[in-house]
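Minimal example, chain plus guanosine-5',3'-tetraphosphate.
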Amino acid sequence: MANQDFLSEINKRRTFAIISHPDAGKTTITEKVLLFGRALQRAGTVKGKKSGQHAKSDWMEMEKERGISVTTSVMQFPYKDHLVNLLDTPGHEDFSEDTYRTLTAVDSCLMVIDAAKGVEARTRKLMEVTRLRDTPIITFMNKLDRDIRDPMEVMDEVETELKIACAPVSWPIGSGKGFKGVYHILRDETILYKSGQGHTIQDVRVIKGLDNPELEKAIGASLADQLREELELVMGASHEFDRELFLAGELTPVFFGTALGNFGVDHMLDGLVEWAPAPLGRETEDGPVKASEPNFSGFVFKIQANMDPKHRDRVAFCRIVSGRYEKGMKMRHTRIGKDVRISDAVTFLAGDRSLLEEAYAGDIIGLHNHGTIRIGDTFTSGDNFRFTGIPNFAPELFKRIRLRDPLKQKQLLKGLIQLSEEGAVQVFRPLANNDLIVGAVGVLQFDVVVARLKAEYNVDALYEHVNVSTARWVYGKDAKKLDEFRRKAEQNLALDGGDNLTYIAPTMVNLQLSKERYPDIEFKETREH
Ligand code: G4P
């Protein structure tokens, strides 16, 4: 393939995820985005909480019962001259570990805010995670067809609470029953809203220029005056869009609209393909790798079990960092130093699996995993480096797990280690006894683990209370001091699923005291794979 074609394939890609608080409209906006990408004929068919299209494995049944979505998938669709990859993230906070790691695989994020509510807890938390890499953020203020808060005030809230400057790109004309549309500041156009058209791509009416008399006719003289006045105020008080600042993660372009009414979503998409970065490189232990490098490389950020009940397999999601995947190519699994021929990588188009002929930097491919792939693993076309920066987060909830039938201890351990390699849960084996402790970020992970142990490993397990309230991965540069720490603190030490030394503390006070007592030991809240 000519170098020029290779580079244009990469440059036309945009890989992003949506961050939002539950109910802000992530699922709805995903549907509309796919509608624009022609990946859906009609909005309303994305498998969602209520559509009943979930694969029927046991734990998905469970997820359906609870009305939450824990499945992460990847959707690729064309938009204008670009190819967009949208990585869906589980909305429920119980699965925040997965969400956090998915954010390491994107190059930009769309933040959806319910404009009646403003900044909510989960958005705050997810923004913190995107700040670790200064990911560029585009903002969509949703639900303009309802009465919203003063848009200026909501933008202020974003600026002060999320520490990111706001540059309005569109500005709303009214809201709720009186929602008339938006004025696109950069295009100098008023785009008029018609209600009840949300399932389609609409033929919108556009009025060029703020002083166009058509504007008065369309929205009435008083609203038109009010709009001009508001805009004068807004332009004076807010930031202008600046691409450099956006790419540095310091400023977010803000769009207004209604996902349900499918209005304004295309403005946001236009901004995304125009401004969001083309695939970015990533760091390895041996220095950075650029997307435009010809050699294939990628890292695994998520492992998903039971995506298809007919297959009962696991799929490892690999973000291609550089180069190109081609069906049948040989890949090196660098952690185990093995070369494997991959002819069945998959992509996920709006929920459908299809076999992939080729893929480029920025794309996500699904690799079939028969138990050898872990989160954080690197695949290359022959090089031996490993990517860094795919985090594990210290769990906040702990339980001792025990078998009903004690003969299956080996199966239990195997299952737990595999589930921990997938990132479904974390497992800790204390140095001082034979307990098995399961650690999770969200309480629902516990139920998923027991259900999967039964379904996939034929192991009947139950939980008991354990006196652990927090965990930290421990490191020490000085081998002698680390050894001493290991002996003295043995009662509180454990090995995690990857045999990393971990301090498990009964209380935060205990952790604090140990930190003071062993100043040469590092206690870390995250561990990179
Ligand atoms: P989430 O994935 O972020 O959790 O949000 P989701 O899209 O499921 O939207 C949450 C609720 O908000 C849904 O209503 C959805 O229809 C509604 N919604 C999303 N965008 C808009 C919008 O622009 N305007 C209005 N008025 N509502 C919006 P629900 O009643 O919970 O579900 P449903 O019965 O409508 O499916």
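Residues 41-60, 62-72 have pLDDT under 50 and may be disordered. The pocket of guanosine-5',3'-tetraphosphate is lined by residues 20, 22-28, 50, 91, 142-143, 145-146, 258-261 (CB under 6 Å).
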